[in-house]
């Protein structure tokens, strides 16, 4: 199943994908063919097992047929055995920085360099036991394991009541709410109301060894009227107790935050709690649970989809750090402006006064799929200096730090270079006036951003992907006004989203039509 290339949907059955482990016998009965009939590993191996899939359409209902056969490679140049497991995967290269640049230059700067490890050992089973191998690292969607079972994330299953049997999946950000039955007299004995129930089991860093304790990040106490207070200390656990007919310190919400490495190893786990009081008249309470994952040495940035963009969420943008030795090797999320603190593409935000000079610094995020237009008015007098005004208008239109790149997907990471689309900037101006006329110059009056996107992936669940972004600055000629005269110029910003997806080709040919008139009783006795 790990080699199934047609398995595109997470936890869902892909149509005609016979190797999808999410498909049931009922799903297979609706398939028309197997899009991937043979699944194998490395095609360069001399001999290996091959999974062969087919459909028995004569069965009632139709069913999938699975066979495991020995496949022999006819080529004389083939791999007999993969006895060096470390060569089957690529290690993440060390990113050059000002601190390690000289060291890397000494190692790799020559005409030749050795890539062989210091100790070449073919007996990898002795050096890397199975529990320490890369295969024991967490993968997407795999339940996060603890020393006794798995990390619980209570959620409603059939009804709205909480079920503690829901495991938290690795890299799967979730937020759930459910109803819990309570009794004030027994609140100190209900495990789901106690902080210990959510932090007493250590998380396994990898799926077999190395335990990571869950620390308490913060504790918020909520009163009966809904007012919340953040406690200054988290050293002492607050367990539920009955006091004056109330159950205090009952868990109303838990927010897990998991930090992991790029190889799938959990290195830190923290939980933030919301505790509250329950009156004796209360028979049930609503609990909220949330879990999020962050890779180490990265800033948590809100996503706009997973993977494709979601309509109405901000378009994520970034820029390239100045002075970086290899410009194409690394991208950094734009965090320069307070109005752009979440790495978003922004445009001019219209104000009630419509004054361009007063609107400087006010930005509105560009929301995916929403065509937007905004603007302001500029009052020009005879005393207005053109060159400073042109730079001010450019800052009003583009902002103080206009991004250089846009994320092609809603969940694109900063280190994934190919997931970032450069912004093409164009300048359009009126025909330049004669050089003998020194009393006029060019000022920008509009910024037009066109975002071209396409549907990507499966036809059943297509994902929105940005493929091109163009920002066009239009300038006009500003002539010197006579003394005492004024002029008002409109300044506009706009964003247009264009779907350039090619229409899907039908997998069938249209039936021929016959233009004839049937007898009136042809379908008798049916209508």
List keywords for this structure.
527 residues, mainly beta, 3 domains, eight-stranded mixed sheet, extended
Explain what the structure shows.
By secondary structure, this protein is mostly beta strands. The protein has 3 domains: 9-89, no CATH class; 142-302, no CATH class; 313-499, no CATH class. The protein has helices at 25-28, 101-108, 124-127, 196-199, 386-398; strands spanning 38-39, 47-56, 63-72, 155-156, 162-163, 174-181, 203-204, 211-212, 214-222, 228-230, 241-243, 246-260, 266-279, 284-295, 317-319, 332-333, 346-348, 363-365, 372-381, 405-407, 420-429, 440-456, 463-479, 486-499. The strands form 6 sheets. It has an 8-stranded mixed β-sheet, covered by helices on one side. A hairpin with a 5-residue loop joins strand 4 and strand 5. The radius of gyration is 31 Å and the shape is extended. The relative contact order is 0.08. The model is unreliable at 116-135, 324-342 and 432-438 (pLDDT under 50).
